[in-house]
Amino acid sequence: MAELLGLGDECREGASGAPALAASCLADNRLNLDVYPDGCRRFLRLFEGRQGEVVRVEFLRLSTNDRLLGTTLGILPHLKHLKSLVLKGGHARDEFGSCQHGSLTSLPPDVGNLSCLTHLDLSFNSLSTLPGCILHLPSLRVLLVSHNSLVTLPEDFGSLSKLTFFSAMKNQLKDLPQSIGELAVLQDLDLSENALEFLPEEVGNLHNCTELDLSGNRLSSIPDSLANLKSLRRLHLHSNLLVTVPASLASLPNLSRLDLQNNCLRAVPPEIQTSPFVHLRGNPLGETEPSPQADESSAGGLRRLFLTSGEDSFTVTSEGCRVVLACGIHFYFPPGAASDPLRIYFRTLAPDPRWVKLRHHDVLLSRVLELQPHGLKFQQEVQIWMPYASPQTLHQREVVVRTFSGQSWSDLRTGVEQKRKSKHVAHCSVLHFSWFLVVSRLVQNECKVPTEGTLLFSSVDPSIKVTFPPGVTEETRSVKLQVHIEELTADAGCRASPLLCLSQDSLVDFLRPVRIQLPLPPGVTGLNLDRSRLHLLHGDLEGQTWDDITSQVVLEFTHLYAVFEVTHFSWYWLWYTTKTYIGGIAKKVYERLRMYQVNFIALQRKKDPEQVLLQCVPKHKVDPVLKKLQDRYRGPEPSDMVEMFEGEQFFAAFEHGISIDMDRPDCVDGRLSFIFYSHLKNMKEIYVTSPVDRKGQAVKGQVSFYRGAVPESISEDARRRRKGPDSLWLATLPIKLPRLKPRWSENPSPLNGFSFPPLNLGNAETGYLTQANLLSIARRVGADWQTVGLHLGLSYQQIERIGEDLNKQILDMLFSWAQQNSEDPDCVSKLITAMKESGRQDIADEVETIIELGRQKYRESIRRVGLEQESSTEDSAIPQGPASSQGAGC
């Protein structure tokens, strides 16, 4: 069989290897092979060598981005004891960093004979129809087919009589079979992000359903039969086209959340409008929240959508709409922009220098906004308003929105508005969706140069002129002019004119010399000019070399200006100095113009010293930042000043007995990775630990900062200077973890008289929370416990029944929820979401850290039993583009 599979000698070696390999691997009847790029090959190798053990596997996870998936599928029907099967895509990324769907399009018919299978996950694949064999699985309770291409479900879908959880989010479902009402024990139904236009009345027969998510569809109405769902707790109907809803929904006895946001509701029954658990924002019911200023008169009656931080899409119809994202980004879709209802997806991303290519002297002012679908052309221009961090100096700079075509970045015609005292917004209009960001660039003047010639001057300094004589070109070409004015203070013996950059859209030099006028350096006039000290420097487009071309051109002088002629466009700079080797001096000064003076800060939260805030702050912002944080944080004085380039990478490493979670996506070789952008927050807040026993004494450690990769636009000489062993270290700041003082016992029985039965949330493979973890979380919740409880899905009645003592309130709330949801496979993610929605990002980060640590330990156990990755191709080698995994979220 090994020869047929193309595994060769390596497979036979695995089959004849240590006998304990497969036995150890299958000790718990589990195989998690989706973490490996060659997981299917490993599975086939194990099946070849230890078939007897493999057929008794109960839990199996494989990636469907694997080239050997087809061969592996043929073996699945032999696994008669299989209880959980996960065949998911999304483990590989395309050239833009987006998740690639798996190649799975069907399942072998004999999979329907797996009588023990209760959990099946086929998410992120290429299914256009639901495999028929699924309907023959007699024990199936959980089915996930999200992120596929399903258009419809089988008519006899209701034959899955034991199904309790079904998710088909982000497909293309247009309707539902009537038999869906036969799923008598179904508790959780997620059909969000589809194309549903109506629901069958039979949906009202799902009497055990507790959560129903129909958001992000095209529903204009819902059946009255939904009022029969007496067990329903949460009903999500946001981002549809609803014009009315049944008043009977308000009478559902257990309903704790009814989300009707971002629909077309113009009238809502009073019973619903006055209910405390109903969310109606984003409907045309008299909203008074401000919208973008443009076209108010023509768009006054448009539907307005106000999206929350957890949403990532909305629907646009031919009627048009206004959309406001939680992060402050606005959209205006005029009537007729989309001919048919269109689903728009959005996310904001952390900029990555590997694909965000800033030009010389550019400053990044915003995160990256991605809008999908890419490439689709609207019938009319869509307007976008993007908030940005206002740069300090504007007199020689301008703000533009820049967009990525998939190949290169280009600047859009941009308007700038100031909404409030400190809020600035950049406005542009587009016909296509792509990636967008806001940058500050040198003011750019441009013109078309015809055969007859023309004149171009700088709006920053009108005395800077470029004259194009007649006959300068055979065909019209575009030219651009930028000026950088910077007074040189580093060397008193040098003076320089404004730095002039000229560029054109043609590779051919001009046919006749172009006449350029530059002001003389400060303090120099035609009367006191010493021509031997004046140098005209020419720099290449990358600013890496500066040549003295004084002897190659004819320089003319007036009282205030120097005039010369050239046929080639690039950088030009007039220097007045007695120094020799002026080209080398100019190169260093030019590099310094692109540097920022910064300080590092490392602060610890006063209430929880294990929570550390790290930030790289431009020198002029240090005092305001520290003043803002002083009430909640304490720490050492900022580091000494260092210099960094825009877009330069640096790392933070904890040392001397203090460590962090090494499994973070932004952790490289035990160091936290940062990218410095002068106008963005270069900040991370993390939890640190210490392997040292802190019960007896405090731990005095430190955090050190080191240089990383330099942007590609920086000259090679500057890049080489940053690579020396002494130049990598930037700064070190002390961190102190105090001696531990026991506040909560990890033994639940003597905890202020309270006791709770042992429980764990999650599982070993995906990471879990122990009872001790829950106790640690409980002590951090504090006065936010009621808000957290509501976001966890507890009803108002349940919260009101909890006692008066604060400690008991928190414990009762958290543990009662945990006991009710311990069997829910998504309980931990729901806890994380509830903490974020309650404004407790710090607790959410702690839970995610615990979960990641559990996953890391599980992967290490996999490696210990011989399933370590053997392929030389690492996941990190996959190129990432604009959809970089560094972060999304608005």
Automatic annotation (TrEMBL):
GO terms for cellular component: cytoplasm. Residues 864-890 are annotated as: Disordered. It holds the Pfam family Death. GO terms for biological process: apoptotic process; DNA damage response; signal transduction. SUPFAM superfamilies: DEATH domain, L domain-like. Residues 310-442, 443-578 form the ZU5 domain. InterPro entries: DEATH-like_dom_sf, Death_dom, Leu-rich_rpt, Leu-rich_rpt_typical-subtyp, LRR_dom_sf, LRR_domain-containing, LRR_R13L4/SHOC2-like, Peptidase_S68_pidd. Keywords: Leucine-rich repeat, Repeat. Residues 770-851 form the Death domain. The record marks F433, S434, F569, S570 as: Cleavage. The active site is at H432, S434, H568, S570. This is P53-induced death domain protein 1.
